[in-house]
Amino acid sequence: MFNQQHTAIIDRPVRKAQPAPAAKSDAADSERPGNEHIRELLKSYGLRTSLIRLKVIDALHTADKNGRTIGVRGVHSQLEQLDIPLSFLSVREVLKRLCAEGVISLGSDKCYSLNPEARSILAHACPR
After folding, report:
1. Measured between alpha carbons, how far is 48 from 95 in angstroms, rounded to an integer?
2. What are the pLDDT digits (tens) for 31-47?
């Protein structure tokens, strides 16, 4: 008896295994020195580095250096001006998570700011 499914499976081309991507080295991190201070901050809080976290913390750090705090809409509009396509909800969720982890705090005016410890880590990691 002829089994078409069995024949189709046998006739499939064999795929070669792709080598695993190489782990990021220190050289890869040095290519983006502008983010290193934020990466250090996230690492100290036990958080993974992600593009959205980098951008949100950078927006808060910029506001902090200018002596102000910003809300969700402010962070979102700042990212939009930089052509970073993130939804309002994504920004809000990242802010909530960073707040829950103690990296930032939410003021009574519904604006976010870096906590003193986070501010200190950023200042020591990248004294700009």
Report:
1. 14
2. 445 788 999 999 999 99
